[in-house]
């Protein structure tokens, strides 16, 4: 205990006659000093200033101040005069602070401490800092308010307080971090690796770098669920970009290079993103706390505005009036979402006491109704006006450090592992390190689809994402994948909808590993309790087609379009770099730019365009590029080192769905197909299906009814099936074969016009195989004279009962009987070379056989 000091003798009574000191002079004798104060404050002609002097005179006479304390006040006043402090507001603030301490019955020790802090502030601080401390001290002691305005106020409830002068920046020691009981974090991509996706191990976390108190994570960009703006500067995943801190920039930890992914053996690599740990966790570093301060311990902070209020319970901290800041340690904020309790336990944080907002990092969020275990991350509160129609203001907000949150009660058969964030009552999946979150949906004991995204909105009835990589499972080995689409999943209806997003992947097709095709369409709809997945177009359905292309499709026109105005062909650039570096499949933009002596920005722009079209996978946060098979296919095909095909099926369906994938049979039913070709020469072999409908089967097999045209030969029938590997059409049920006659134009015999003739089936139908080209020459690059060729497994009849044959003189008794036969070179322009062995039946004469 401090020793009780002797009280001074009573000064001259108030109102006693004494010669006033000249203006600007204050006596060093306490008795005269108080009289000089009256004269000085009276000279201001301000009622408040004169009232503060009068109250001080009463306190002076009340014997509540010790002689030492009075001496300190006199000495401080002398220093203030030397530094040209004015009676108002400076001396008035000094007197009000002293009066507030006395009115709140500060102990002698507390009053002495307060006066000692004031003395050091006057001695060492500038006028503005001292004035703020004096004003805030008076306000706090009188009302327990740290800040007050017509818009907001900050009040302290309970707890203890002391005043101090910090010679150095020495905040309170950090309280012990709460121990989390969350399960060990598991990278999203390793939770259940997609069979068509290379898996990647997360890079080792770098050592944390200290950061300033506010790193700008709570920005509109982070909470905006809309997509970004296109290729050239898009990473394909809408990575949250931190704004520059308002204070001195924090040190950045060195990045640890991500290890190359080890591919999982699969039928075809799909460009689905995998988790890449690309951010270090910035540890908190408090702002300066030097100078006169108020230290608060185990108190509640009430932050209130006309429309909102919060309480931060059981916190401690340092109020630095000169910087208008509160540097806090510990404490908890509690609130409810849909009547469910939520708490955020703070460790270290700071905020501007003049604003109804603050952020804290790290914090531990506990939300028993939603989270299996507490989650560590960052917290933000801001008092904002609720928008019309909104359920809340969008605050408080929380964002997890990484993707280790396990959300429960998300819905039947929905498993979620990833980031977790809150914006008011809205649940999202963002995380501070930008890592991906994964949703897996099951039904009937099977995994139906999985999706990864940085920005899910986890609603009560609907889950949405502005951009998500999606995998739909067809069977154990095959899947339908897309690297970035808008996702909407109705939990009640169990309906998945995927739509084109507005950024990098706007025109990227789906990859179908079962059918070995790329599917370019705008909307995918799948009620997951049914086996039917529908594909359709939304824009100008009577003009814009859906596209179904073989994975081996190639055209030189498209290859040249990729180059556009670039000096270097982007595909040649990435494939060439790979080949000159040991066929490396993974490398960075920086490595490639340095090797090719090209600006990184130019390489990055080219790479993003290639990612859009499915030639590479690109992670902009690490600038890592992964070469996909489509890239090498196009480059090698352009150089004549690889075979390719021309299978590109267009679907125009104004009245409904363009295609339906039946998961029971795995048939892809495509509608609105007028015709499709098997070569770049559309005259050689093409198909016109009946009802404009075909069925695409495993590995680009096509089942259809209709017409096959192979140059001069027209085959009509049912159950025709195209075999991709053999590159032939199995004409299972041929109704008729028409051989077109050659007209006079271009004919050797210009005066004669040949007529068409038909080969009629001997039975209800005949069959055969049409060999389009050599299976190793699907591109038709090599001109092989034997193709197309037709091998009939059954014979045919040729009837002569046509009007153009002798005016229709013959009836059906006259015909030509053809046994099973084979025709080569159907594209031969010399039609006279087409001949058949067989037997002529005249109806009157004996059979006449044509030798083979």
TrEMBL record:
Protein name stated in the entry: Uncharacterized protein
Biased composition (Low complexity): 1-21, 189-203, 223-239, 246-265
Region (Disordered): 1-24, 169-273
Domain of life: Bacteria
